[in-house]
Design brief:
10 helices, 288 residues, alpha/beta, single chain, ten-stranded mixed sheet
Length: 288
Amino acid sequence: HYFIQSNLSMRWILVLVTCVSWVVATIEPPSKSDKKNRKADQRVEFKSVIDRGLVKSEPHWSEITKHHDRYSVNLVDKKSFKQDLFGFVTPWNNHGYDVAKTFGAKFNYISPVWLQLVPTSKGTFKIGGGHDIDAGWIRDVKNNSTGVRIVPRLILERWSLSLLKQVVSSESELLHVVQTVVDFCSDEGFHGVVLEMWRQFGGREKPLLHKLIQSVSEGMTERGMSTLLVIPPGVKPMPEIFDKFDFQILQPYIEKFIMMTYDHHQATGKAGYFHTGTCVRGSSGHFK
């Protein structure tokens, strides 16, 4: 994923590099004895990955599989990267929860993938996903890092284009939606919210999306909370559904933009680093 500073006077893009433990199991499933031995010496490293010569433009796969779960115990609570760092945590990957607790001091934002804004049969809206909220985990993360901000991701569930039009065209319904989101985040003690809604409408009815996002952001700001927005990358030959005009309109309302590059794209046939680079180059014109 790429993380984009909203302030135009500070133009930079942050690369989030994720080390995935499943690489070992994919290449060669470890035996019980291997797991036990690796667990025993997992924390014996005292030097950083830079001091160990592991940060390079073309690492060998064996270096990754050997060192992916080894980190310096001396640097767990020290942030070496000078810019802001953002990370998603998903309920279907428990290891992510442990990483957030262990390395919380290195992050500025942690976004649990928990929440959905859902229409009800009564014509109102509610926040779904509350059962996934782990108050104990949030407390542990905050205790390990006083500076980290918890900003859960929120998606629109069971929303059609006609429902979007209905909500935005009605001042009372729009106010209800905003109040639902703001009250929930405030009651749970979150620092803000990450909105992910742009891709699901395929670039249609952009003015409606602008209005919805702006309204939620204004409500969050009034209560001292932040709004972040997930945006899709521009990858040819796929049509560009988020462009520089969208960025210019929303930039005053969004604290951070998160570009979802993922790790593979069918349109380019590229994976990993190569696809990520393609995404950023294809979208660079948005932020000038």
